[in-house]
Specification:
The protein contains 13 helices and ten strands. Helix 2 packs across helix 5 and helix 2 packs across helix 13. Strand 5, helix 5 and strand 6 form a beta-alpha-beta unit. The strands form two sheets. The protein has an eight-stranded mixed β-sheet, with helices on both faces. Helix content is 48%, strand content 13%.
């Protein structure tokens, strides 16, 4: 009988308890009020940098959304051109995020690859920038473990290196759709927003995934099967879920949920052969601490304390041949409920096994600081744009529209006088 895995955060709890006992023992016998520890305060430079970043981010987002509004007005009855120009704004959003992150918290990406033949000759060199680029499948489903809120930015950057950043579709929780300005922008990108309720999400997912399947030659669909990032609360829920479902608990990842990914594979199976499984590790924190607690938004963008390196291990899975017992070319709308549930159970078992391997990879990462590398090679690059001039694309169209409008206004004003 397999021994149940221990909770990796027990060490942290014990450490905290020991600290409390030490503090209690060090209190003098007379009644004194302990002096609280001072919180870390931002320097004037850090505050000025944050103001600059906020200015860039707010004006950039407003510019992108303004561009989208222009597209919707001009190409309302021309879906082909509308989609083409929306793709341009989608890449610009990533450009904005990468520019900000690279300026405040420079990060090195270390990418390793599994031994699948589909990952042969995947790293190329851009002849213009001399930077690494990827030759991965342009039409794929991408899954990853979820540790911090900005995981998706780094996966999106891989799509940027693979020349398909303008055709990435991300599955997110529905609450993000309601964000001011950003929610409107992401809806125009056809991101998939879920309420995490199978009854209400199923038909919506089928329609969304079918739409994604027909966008063209380039398409990355990004899904985090864990559904949320790793935290003390979500890990506790994962342990309870494992106990309820009679599953082996994990140590450094959350147990995945299979239904959304199953529908994605089922509805993209006719046009998509490849499923990329990414395992992401952040340097600078031990396994008994949460990456989301160490690398908060304020830590990264105010204090500049982001991860010095991000390791990403890539495995490739052939959807049709590597996942046995399921016909992914079959129309999901024609399945009986009984057959669909049986397939979901099979798919769930396969996905759990993938996640146990991912958990082992994460354990190895925390012990050695790197992922296994069967090929003996790794690709290292800085998280930064090919050229800072790409940032101009974020602002150029609304700026030209403003100048054109101002010119017309002046002409009309002169004619009237």
């Amino acid at each position: 009988m397999r021994k149940r895995a221990s909770n990796p955060f027990q060490h942290k709890v014990k450490s905290l308890q020991a600290d409390v006992r030490t503090e209690e023992n060090s209190i003098p016998s007379h009644n004194t009020i302990p002096v609280p520890k001072k919180k870390k305060r931002a320097t004037m430079f850090q505050i000025a940098r944050l103001v600059y970043l906020l200015l860039v981010f707010v004006t950039g987002c407003m510019s992108i959304v303004s561009h989208q509004v222009i597209i919707l007005l001009l190409f309302h009855n021309d879906p082909v051109r509308k989609a083409k120009f929306m793709r341009f704004t989608k890449q610009n959003f990533l450009v904005l995020l990468v520019y900000m992150t690279s300026k405040v918290s420079p990060t090195e990406l270390i990418v390793t690859f599994g031994d699948s033949p589909a990952l042969n000759n995947t790293v190329l060199t851009d002849p213009k920038t001399k930077r690494p680029t990827f030759n991965l499948d342009n039409h794929a489903i991408v899954i990853a473990n979820h540790q911090i809120y900005s995981d998706w930015v780094f996966v999106w950057f891989l799509a940027y290196l693979n020349k398909c950043a303008d055709e990435i579709f991300i599955v997110m929780k529905r609450s993000l759709e309601k964000l001011p300005v950003l929610g409107f922008g992401m809806r125009n990108y056809n991101f998939v927003f879920l309420s995490r309720n199978w009854a209400s999400d199923r038909e919506y997912m089928v329609q969304s995934f079918r739409k994604v399947a027909t966008v063209g030659k380039k398409c990355w669909l990004l899904i985090f099967p864990e559904g949320t990032n790793l935290s003390t609360t979500t890990y506790s829920k994962s342990l309870k879920y494992a106990e309820k479902a009679h599953l082996k608990p994990t140590q450094d990842v959350l147990l995945p949920r299979a239904r959304g990914l199953y529908l994605a594979c089922k509805n993209l199976g006719g046009t998509t052969r490849t499923l990329y499984d990414l395992t992401i590790g952040y340097s600078g924190h031990p396994s008994d601490k949460m990456a989301q607690d160490v690398y908060t938004l304020s830590s990264i963008y105010l204090f500049g304390n982001g991860p010095k390196s991000i390791s990403i291990h890539v495995d490739a899975i052939d959807i049709q041949h590597d996942i046995s017992g399921i016909d992914f070319s079959e129309d999901s709308t024609q399945l009986s409920v009984k057959k669909e549930e049986a397939e979901i159970e099979k798919f769930g078992n396969w996905l759990n096994e993938r996640w146990y391997k991912k958990d082992a990879l994460m354990k190895q990462y925390y012990e050695t600081g790197k992922f296994e590398n069967a090929r003996g090679k790794e690709c290292r690059m800085q998280l930064k744009l090919g050229s800072s001039l790409e940032l101009i694309n974020v602002y150029i169209v609304p700026l030209l529209a403003y100048l054109f409008g101002f010119f017309i206004y002046k002409v009309v004003q002169r004619l009237l006088h």
